[in-house]
Amino acid sequence: MTIVESHKRSIAKAMSWRIFASLVTVIVVYSFTRELILSAGIGLVDTAIKIIGYYSHERLWGRIRFGRKEIKEDYMI
């Protein structure tokens, strides 16, 4: 049985992670600058770039067989 991750799942994972990570970025930038608009802007740009990067990284790793095993089921119903 081969399980392949769908593009939709990769996108959903990337987006949920980036929402969390963007909040962290905004908090860190705000703690240094005390400027909310600048912090939010940096958080948004950072998010857009990193969503694309994460998605690409996930899809690349999906093609690499390293560390994967195919397990055959004993029986099928």
Helix/strand-derived class? mainly alpha
H-E string: HH
Mean pLDDT: 88
Most strands sheet: none
Radius of gyration: 18 Å
- The beta-strand count equals 0
- Share of helix, binned: over 70%
Determine the strand fraction and express it as a percent band.
Answer: under 5%
Described by the principal axes of the CA atoms, the overall outline is: elongated
Low-confidence stretches: none
Main features:
mainly alpha, 77 residues, 70% helix
Q: Can you characterise this structure?
A:
- The chain is mainly alpha-helical and 77 residues long.
- Helix 1 packs antiparallel against helix 2.
- The chain is elongated and about 60 Å long.
- It contains 2 helices and no strands.
- The relative contact order is 0.17.
